Amino acid sequence: MYYKKGFMMTNLNEDNAVLVKDLTKVYKLYDNPKDRLKESLSFIRKKYHSEFYALNGVSFSIKKGQTLGIIGKNGSGKSTLLKILTGVLTPTSGSVMVNGKVAALLELGAGFNVEYTGIENIYLQGTIMGYSREQMDQRLDGILNFADIGEYIYQPVKTYSSGMFARLAFAVAINVDPEVLIIDEALAVGDMKFQAKCFNRLTELKENGVTILFVGHDVSSIRTFCDLALWLHEGEVIEYGNTLDVTAEYMKYMNDDVSTLEASAAIEMSLNKIATDFDPINRWGSQQGIIKYVEMFNSKGEKSTVINFGETVSIKIITEVPKEVDLKFVSIAFSIKNKVGTDLMVSTTYDHNHRFTKANTNAIEVTFEFENYLRDDEYILVVAIEERKNLQPEYFDYIEGAKYFKVISEKKIFGYFHPPVSQTINFMKE
């Protein structure tokens, strides 16, 4: 059971950038549009609505120059919170105090007039921020260089792709000298190169003392970039504080939430009942369907799609090979790929000289175990049943995306793969 954790609030002072106290946002929901009129005309003030708490008693504070990552499932209240902080929405109750000039990237294109050109929208945003045309003239080159959308800057933004929208919106937001920068997942639509460019600039802003609030689903990015984390769930604060601690609890919750949907005693059940529901990127082979079960386990023996750097990981695979297949040529394999499809790690029973022999059953269970030295990121698990009669394997069943998992780390990891490395150090005589 998750609960709201309390913490001491302070008054807004020169060290604080944001102070939120007991913030609540309630929406009235009507089953029928006519009910709104009935309620307004009711002499006895009869209620025809139900109440939905988008936010309920949210409290936190951020010091100047800190970076806050806001996490939570869809519908948890993240976007509502940011809209209140930027003044787009008004709270039902509670208080919000922001110390400094705010720039925000909310929903894609929010604040833009889609009929205006990119150039016209730049000046429109400057006016909203309180800058004169002359002041925006001085910032124009920086905005255009960062957005890098070429001649599209002179076209109506309604013709832009989502990526161009994001480029222009981000370029404007970072070039109007914000003291508080608020970002609501707007970077998710950009390509990897643009995202890297954005995070480099965000790092510069952070080093220059800009306070940043960042909503995102990528826990690895939040761990790398943010000083603090705020976990919202159904409009309430579950945890607020150290990024590593909060994200670890969040990922455990998300993993447990998924695990409750799975059978708890899968291995003991018959092959027909243990079959895993796969959601693969790709599945192919001459005997598709013979892979019945794939699961990942952490060092505690728990099912998990969140793995710690350095811990022991187990991958269990169950297959039912057709009786006409010669078992001595069968190999069971797995590989781990990154998001762009590069094989980072491959292991097979064939390469470990395991040869299967005919038995009373063609149902085979194999467990691979290894220490995880992949850096914190998201990965794809590939599982395959191979035929190894020839040098080049052929595939009975190949699942790209048997599982999707994350690696998390308590420290900053550089590079992708970090196996144990021995070191010898000598002090040389002068």
TrEMBL record:
The name this protein carries in UniProt is ABC transporter ATP-binding protein
Q: Which UniProt keywords apply?
A: ATP-binding, Nucleotide-binding, Translocase, Transport
This chain's source organism reads Lysinibacillus telephonicus
InterPro entries recorded: AAA+_ATPase, ABC_transporter-like_ATP-bd, ABC_transporter-like_CS, ABC_transpr_TagH-like, Bact_Polysacc_Export_ATP-bd, P-loop_NTPase, Wzt_C
Query: Which Gene Ontology terms cover its molecular function?
Result: ABC-type transporter activity; ATP binding; ATP hydrolysis activity
Residue ranges occupied by any ABC transporter domain in the UniProt entry: 18-259
The record's listing under Pfam families reads: ABC_tran, Wzt_C
Q: What family is this?
A: Belongs to the ABC transporter superfamily.
Q: Does the keyword Signal apply?
A: no
Question: Which superkingdom heads the taxonomic lineage of this protein's source?
Answer: Bacteria
Gene Ontology terms: cellular component: membrane
Does Transport count among this protein's keywords?
A: yes
